[in-house]
């Protein structure tokens, strides 16, 4: 082989080793605007079983930063990993003030979610990532339109690997399918198993399709469905109770969000589960198209909820990051915020 051909072969090998162009994470600048009040025009901080801590709206000139659909906080709320429904990983750090209130996003990086061949998906329908769960060093991602679940390395996501689907794809609506995936605590009744909940796909009784992963068809259960509400994300509390985030959209200006709490012992194969609404908000509050929810414990031992919105790439919508504290008396409280 000639020297020129050897150089060309080495260059080709390097390209193949690095992967497709644009697959490596790249930094992006994110600007933020604080949201000090949750209820517009009011200093009220209590909303059902939650106390509002603070939050911000954020944006970037990087057009890839849109459609954030699920977020998971790490290191006690210092770092995060998120996915977008346009097929990207979004990671960074939450900037906080001296009291721990969230102010904005630092060290932001964006990278495409690679398919099983190691390349960014060619079609939007293949890239529609809606749910994210962290299971140790693994990231589990649920995709809606091309209904599937894939696993990745959470710290260095490369190509995905398949996860068995306990719900038949024929039962899932193309734009109302797998929206929620969450991993239970190892000490909970589910013993660390993951669950999935559909956004709007229902069974014969009109309840949302759901399943416990790892148990095959025996892992199927359902979640009571209110017709005007769509399930968008969920997260487990330390005791195993499950918080389900839901969104309502009934035309411009008529949007809402609520959070239901489902008892840990209720989630089992064959069950139909429900739980009290611990918080509800409408357009009189700082909400938008709320799609992502996570829960963690801070250094004070407080249970913190983070809720994020999906701006749909629209000039008329916002990317929001909001934090709430679960009240100590919330275990039996079921409240609605008008």
Structural commentary:
The protein contains one helix and 24 strands. With 338 residues, it is mostly beta strands. The protein has one helix at residues 3-18, and strands spanning 26-27, 31-35, 46-47, 50-59, 68-74, 79-84, 88-96, 102-112, 129-135, 138-143, 148-153, 161-163, 178-183, 194-202, 208-212, 220-223, 229-236, 242-249, 255-262, 272-273, 277-282, 290-297, 303-309, 319-326. Residues 1-21 and 332-338 have low confidence and may be disordered. The relative contact order is 0.15. It has a single domain, classed as Tachylectin-2, Chain A (5 Propeller), CATH 2.115.10. The strands form five sheets. Strands 2, 3, 4, 22, 23 and 24 form a six-stranded antiparallel β-sheet that branches. Helix content is 5%, strand content 45%. The radius of gyration is 20 Å and the shape is globular. The longest helix has 16 residues, at 3-18.
